[in-house]
Amino acid sequence: MKLIDQSIRNYHSVTVVMALVAVVGVICFNTLPRQLTPTVDKPLIEVRTEYSGLSPNEVERNITRRLEEQLESVEGLKKMISRSQHGLSTITLEFEWGTDKNIAMIDVNNKLQQVKDLPVLSDKPTLKSISTDNSSPIMWIVFDKPDPKIPIADIFSTMQLFIIAVGLLFATVSAWIPIVPSFTIA
């Protein structure tokens, strides 16, 4: 109860403190960066190596394990997930937040250059930066043709132009089935 009593007795001080807190809050709010779609790109890199004709066990033994041994020392690496399939080795590298993807790509490429004992007939490992920023659509639009005589391509292009005119960054046609076409906005 002392705090409440002191606040009532010194209401001028309380009013000044509350005004200062409000001013600092407004200043902080105005200085925060804001975006229409914030960039939240998870630092992921995929390494793919093909060698057609090998079973998954042979791919794991001859390619995947050798690459993993070399890649586990990449700086900033958080997690490594590997998959061995018929004739294909895929290793996904997840890095700590804040890791520069370009530097990580160079580091991974340097480590891959050091791997010398891959099978002669296998393809060279290829690097691919995986972008998670626009990987999932914001909205799906599913519709049926109002008139069978109107070409479906005209409907898609008209909808795409309308959606972009509304203010979205881009709209793409992701899939369409003759019975129920669908439209993806991402």
List the helices and strands and how they pair.
Elements: H1 2-9, H2 11-31, E1 44-50, H3 56-71, E2 77-85, E3 88-95, H4 101-113, E4 126-130, E5 139-142, H5 152-166, E6 171-176, E7 181-185
Antiparallel strand pairs: 1-3, 1-4, 2-3, 5-7, 6-7
Q: How many beta strands in the DSSP annotation?
A: 7
Shape label? flat
Q: Mean of the pLDDT scores?
A: 80
CATH architectural group of the largest domain:
2-Layer Sandwich
Main beta-sheet annotation: 4 strands, antiparallel
Q: Treating each run of at least 4 consecutive H or I residues as one helix, how many helices?
A: 5
CATH topology of the largest domain: Alpha-Beta Plaits
Helical content class = 25-40%
Low-confidence stretches: none
Count of discrete structural domains: 3
- Radius of gyration based on Cα positions: 28 Å
CATH superfamily of the largest domain: Multidrug efflux transporter AcrB pore domain
The N- to C-terminal Cα distance equals 55 Å
Question: Which CATH class of the largest domain applies here?
Answer: Alpha Beta
List the strand order in the largest sheet: 2-3-1-4
H-E string:
HHEHEEHEEHEE
Indicate the proportion of strand residues: 15-25%
Q: What structural class results from the helix and strand content?
A: alpha+beta
